[in-house]
Amino acid sequence: MPDTIPLVPDKLKDYLDGCIRLWREKKNAGHFMAMFYIDAYQSVRTSLFGETLPSDDGDKTTEELSDMIEKRLQSVLLSAGLLNPVNAVRIVMKVILNE
Predict the structure, then answer these.
(1) What is the 3-state secondary structure (H, E, C) of 26-86?
(2) pTM of the model
């Protein structure tokens, strides 16, 4: 019995693509952690095959989602009258630390 499992590139790529599509569906259903799984599988796919799986639905990267969250947070803070440096830092730290 061999010590390693022989890898078939096409099957591995199909597996990664399936995982990416699954997590895209979960992201569309509101699963909070999905974007991180998508980025992880895309990273593996890029490392092995030199390319990411193209998005059919304008899939956003973690950086793009982070920018969207930051803008939304600023909007909420501004509308609540809380957008000053001290309060903004406190609120962001609570979000980061899950308090």
Answers:
(1) HHHCCCCCHHHHHHHHHHHHHHHHCCCCCCCCCCCCHHHHHHHHHHHHHHHHHHCCCCCHH
(2) 0.55
How far, in Å, CA of 19 to CA of 38, rounded? Answer: 8
Cβ proximity of 55 and 35 under 8 Å = no
User: Cβ-count burial of 53 within 10 angstroms (0-12 exposed, 13-18 middle, 19+ buried)?
Assistant: buried
**pLDDT per position as a tens digit, 65-91:** 677 777 777 777 677 666 666 666 776
Mean pLDDT calculated for residue range 1-9: 76
The tokens describing 8, both together, are 């078939």
